Amino acid sequence: MNNREPLMSAELVEARPSTSSGRMGQRVEVVLIYQSLLGLYGDRGNATVLIKRLAWRGYEPVLTLVEPGDPLPDSGQVYLLGGGEDAAQVSAVRALKADGGLQRAADRGAAILAVCAGYQIVGNTFTVGYRDEVISGLGLLDVTTTRGPARAVGEIISRWKGRAGRDRWITGFENHGGYTRLGPGVTPLAAVEIGVGNCNDGTEGAVAGTVIGTYPHGPILARNPALADHILELALGHELEPLAHPEINKLRRQRLARVRRSYARSR
User: Fold this and answer.
1) For 237, phi and psi rounded to 5 degrees?
2) Highest mean pLDDT among 51-65, 150-164, 165-179
3) Which of 10, 101, 103, 222 is 20 to 30 A from 124, comparing alpha carbons?
4) Separation in Å, CA 103 to CA 79, 186, 234
5) 63 and 47 Cβ atoms separated by less than 8 Å
6) What is the gyration radius of the CA atoms in the chain, in angstroms?
7) Helix, strand, coil percentages for the chain (3-state, nearest 5)
8) 3-class SS at 152?
9) Percent of all residues in the chain with a pLDDT value above 70, rounded to a whole number
């Protein structure tokens, strides 16, 4: 059965809660999908980040863990998928199709963040194995994924036109063999400065409504708190007051500078 957890304890992201009370006591459910299949790269940390950022603003966050065979709850405001290997990815997409809950979540406007294998799962099709077997996805994003010429491994930096139209840098670590091409029904999440991204075409990720697909791990929301807040704003339907985070801003500047220096030396 589904496992619901209260606010999780974690030493992540920021140390300072906001003085704003937000919508005090409002329950917000974050659904973490199939960690036994899609938990290989530490993307569970994205759930921890969202839970903490909600609690700091005075919300009552609840984390629901769902495994294959469990029904996806229709009560979630945010749904999260992470990365996994080919066999696990195929098992996950089959279970999600049989359940139908993620499609219902998208239809009612819940926020969905799908990372790496999860990104491919919510697309139209992806391929697995050396025979490039084509697997049908959930069709929540108009993207198709095939095996690329070389595996994309390393730090990635991309420019995201984020909250209020302001340019933001997204940092993370990509590790994927699939190359994803976007159809007319989506827009790129970001433009790549360093790294491969979708298919070495200068784009990273895809967005349609409240569904976001992206490749970087990190976890991505720990590295990019503005993106975390954007997902919460999609889920809640209103803007959030910013949290004070000088420490994370300093760490982000250092990380960006280090990746750019390393990239320049490799050229």
Assistant:
1) 80, 20
2) 51-65
3) 222
4) 11, 16, 17
5) yes
6) 18
7) 30, 30, 35
8) strand
9) 90
Long-range contacts of 251-259 (CB under 8 A, 24+ apart): 252/169, 252/171, 252/223, 255/171, 255/223, 256/157, 256/169, 256/171, 259/155, 259/157, 259/171, 259/194
Tell me the C-alpha distance between 116 and 84, whole Å: 8
**pLDDT given for residue 249 in this prediction:** 83
Fold type of domain 3-266: Rossmann fold (3.40.50)
pTM (global) more than 0.85: yes
pLDDT at 23 over 50: yes
Two structure tokens written together for 109: 């406007």
- Identified catalytic residue from 116, 176, 199, 230: 116
Q: Which of 51, 39, 56 is nearest to 76 (CA)?
A: 51
Pick from 255, 254, 240, 231: which is nearest to 76 by CA?
231
Residue 247: phi, psi to the nearest 5?
-65, -45
Query: What phi, psi does 205 have (nearest 5°)?
Result: 70, 180
Q: Is the dihedral of CA 136, 66, 42, 50 positive or negative?
A: positive
The answer to whether 193 touches 207, Cβ cutoff 8 Å, is: no
Q: Please indicate whether residue 116 is annotated as part of the active site.
A: yes
Beta carbons within 8 Å of 93's beta carbon, 6+ residues apart: 121, 135, 136, 137, 138
Backbone angles phi, psi at 188, to 5 degrees: -65, 145
Q: Cβ contacts of residue 246 below 8 Å, gap of 6+?
A: none
For every residue of 55-123, DSSP letters joined together read HHTT-EEEEEEE-TTSPPPTT-SEEEE----HHHHHHHHHHHHHH-HHHHHHHTT-EEEEETHHHHHTS
**98/105 Cα distance (integer angstroms):** 14
**Known active-site residue 217:** yes
Nearest to 4 by CA among 84, 70, 91: 70
